[in-house]
Amino acid sequence: MVEKKDLETGDPELECIWKPMELPTLPKSLTLEEKKYLLAVERGDMGNVKRILQKAHRIKHIDVNCVDSLGRGSLTLAIDGENLEMVELLVVMGVETKDALLQAINAEFVEAVELLLEHEELIHKDGEPYSWQKVDPNIAMFTPDVTPLMLAAHKNNYEIIKILLDRGATLPDPHDVKCGCEECIRESTEDSLRHSLARLNEYRALASPSLIALSSTDPILTAFELSWELRNLAFAEQESKAEYLVLRRQAQLFAVDLLDQSRSSKELAIILNHDPDQPAFVDGDHMKLARLELAIDFKQKKFVAHPNIQQLLASIWYEGVPGFRRKTAIEKVMIICRVALLFPFYCTLYMIAPNCPTGKLVRKPFMKFLIHASSYLFFLLILILVSQRAEVQAIQLFGPEWMVKELEKELLKQRGNRPTYLEIVVVVYVLGFIWEETQEIYIEGIRSYLRNMWNFIDFTRNSLYVAVTVLRVAAYFQQTSEIERDPQTKFIPREKWDAFDPQLIAEGLFAAANIFSALKLVHLFSINPYLGPLQISLGRMVIDIVKFFFIYSLVLFAFACDVFLKAFLNKMDEEQHGVRHAIGAPIATTRLAEQALVGIPPRTAKFTIDEWVLSNDSRCRNAEDQQQLADRILAESKRVKDETAERAEILKATSDKLLKERIGDVDFNKRELQIQREYICSELEALGVYKTRLLECLTSFENACDICRKCLILRDGRLGIDLVVDEVEAVLKQEIETIKGGQILLKKVLEQLQEQMRRLRSTRYLLDRDLQYKQAAIDIDKQNLSLKSTDLCLSIYEGYANLDPANISAEEYNNYSSSNILAAAKEVNSARPIRMYVDTLLKQVVDDLWHAYNRCNHAFLKRIDETRGAKTKLEGMHVETAQKIADMQSNITLLQKALSDREGNTALAHTRLGKRAQRIGAELVRDPTGQALYYECAMLRRSTEQLQQMLFEATASLRYLLQTQIQLEEDINVKMNTLKIDEVDCMTLRETINYHVF
């Protein structure tokens, strides 16, 4: 076999055998002008790039589509530097885009993607491949199956995906992994690895959350179906199982993130009850939870276990017993015991009147669970009573004497017994179980029924009980016929029955059915937060337990075969020779055989003459050979000495040349690093100024926010009716929100600026370290260049091969220096937009704050004018009220004087009437004078009453006027207090607010 190391020696006989593989075309070396061109593009030097491109169009002195040693063209460098102006210039000047669109998408340069898409629409012709499809696959960065939309989906860039979808980009559905079409067969035959990677790339794109959100009308359903498909792919392609499982988790997490966006129970109910084939869910409808059932079918565990869903399910679960979880443990036990004891009543009432309040309560999930669990526990109790023959024990303990004697006679009868009442109850329960399983199959379908492993236990239990019933019926008829033929057969002891008697088999199956019935009780443990996870863990361990049992059975079977063979051989020895061997005796250990020494003849006491002659001849021949070898060594030594001296001179000259070239290269890289370091220092200084501006702005905003809060606090000191939620308060709160919004924006941009400064400092540190290393390398190489072979400071080391610990190739070194320069340039280019963004943001925020400030001041002035107007109006009303009070007091005085006058007139009239009443005899006549006096008294009384009424009303009006005067004075004081707060206190504080761009 020919090895590569043999070919490296240059043996001409082997050169015809080894033929190097055909390699892809490598980038050609760059000229000095092309290097300057690419370096100018990388640095963002628009002037030089434009000048070079214009000159290239005139005289073609460079290739504008040239690439460096890493395969990066000018467009790639501009995209890496995120220089949109440079990208636009290169595209306009006719530089081939090639796969620049894919590079821009990979760098997530949105503006460049839009620009390149517009350019592609202009230059593309129908029927021709796109620019990125024309690149040689051997040198392309991306595989041919990668499209722009697929790459954008890999990056999960929402903006780019939306741009591509708006322009009509599509992502076809991948073929099924078991697809047998001609295309899949051809691709798999040509290159199975590329075919698998292409499918993986397609599914990696399909699993993009942004693509699903933008392209799917039902993102949650799409995430479920994609997750299930990826699960099947993970099992179908074991080589890429880890990648497919990661994508499956990504799709599941997307569905969970969508669920996080629900803000109310109504929204969550609409999501979980959505069914494309059914009308939209309306609040108040019965919750079918179709989407949740679909999530369970697709095994979306994180979706089902989401806290929002669990909260909704808990509210539905405990709907029949509100507040159950907040009750004490004793109250919970009391509720459960009440339902457990009354479950026959609930079941009967539900069958009779399902639409009554209690019947509707029984339909609630929690009540249904409690009733079902209570019924099943009662069934297990019946099984225990049947197994323990509880009827017999009850009669023996509590029955009368005649019943005990009848029982003893009945117990002597071993065969032909009828089923007991408890066994009939068991049969009724079994019929109910069978009906329940049949209904479940009819409603959910056989496939869903078989998917639940607990249904297999139920089916086995029901089948065993049916077999027990059939065997018991067959045994009853068989034993009855036997008793009719021979009555003594009913007293046959069980020990003498046939081993395959139907009743014995039925009793064995009944015991097995009881085991499965008790095993179903484990299913109820899943509701417990401690036993439930243990049950799930046990279910996960079933496969491992089966595997271990298989290995155990295999070892046990092998051991059994060996023991059987040993016993068989022992039996044969015993039959033939009468020798017995104990099975299991320890096996004897093997021993190593002894080998004899050969090839060493016995040594005699003396040598022979022939041996003596042979020894002398051999010594002479050895001496001649050594002399000839010494002559050859002397000649060879002289030749080697001359060649060594000549080679040493050549090697020294070569080393000196290489040292000079190396010093020049390192010095060039050092100058480039120093230039980038200066850029970084200047950018850091500029960013420091911007940081100071942001901090000062934040301080001023905080002061303004404090002033607005103080204004709110001062305005809370308004009194009476003026303590109103007016426009000023609303505008003040809006101004505070505006200030807080501006602070949030400035804090975010401050964090970005600080992060950029940190990255710049980190890059500067790397540059300083690289400069230090390069300066040390230059000093060492210069010192080495100045050394001569005659210097006294030279040393020779043993093991010189370990003196050069370099483990970095020249290409890696160049890449390291270039990467440092590129990283520095990229960070500098990234810092400039931040400063522009800070300027724009500060101006916009300050303008918004001034707008809010002016609007608030306008509201203050408007409110002050309204308050001053109200105060002026109240003062006018106060003056008028005071005048009215004075008038009313004068009126009351006049009324009192009139009343006093009327009292004299009334007394006069009454005195006259009294005097006239003293007339005697016929003189006591009702003459006109008397009538006039009567009329005068009545009119005076009426006048007095009117005056008293007016005096009362005047007094009441005066009292109300005085109260109104007091209220007006209080309102005026309130208005004065409000004016002092708004006009003096608040406006004085607000005059200290000063928003400006620092």
From TrEMBL:
Q: For this chain's UniProt record, which GO biological process terms are given?
A: nervous system process; regulation of cytosolic calcium ion concentration
Q: Extract the GO molecular function terms from the UniProt entry.
A: inositol 1,4,5 trisphosphate binding; store-operated calcium channel activity
Q: Which of UniProt's keywords are assigned here?
A: ANK repeat, Calcium, Calcium channel, Calcium transport, Cell membrane, Cell projection, Coiled coil, Cytoplasm, Ion channel, Ion transport, Membrane, Repeat, Transmembrane, Transmembrane helix, Transport
Q: Where in the cell is it found?
A: Cell projection, Rhabdomere membrane; Cytoplasm
Can you say where the ANK repeats lie in this chain? Answer: 144-176
Superkingdom is: Eukaryota
Residue ranges constituting the Transient receptor ion channel domain according to the UniProt record: 179-241
What is the species of this protein? Arctia plantaginis (Wood tiger moth)
The name on file for this protein is Transient receptor ion channel domain-containing protein
Annotated Gene Ontology cellular component terms: cation channel complex; cilium; cytoplasm; dendrite; rhabdomere membrane
Q: Which Pfam families match?
A: Ank_2, Ion_trans, Tektin, TRP_2
Where is coiled-coil annotated? 743-770
The UniProt entry's sequence similarity note says:
Belongs to the transient receptor (TC 1.A.4) family. STrpC subfamily.
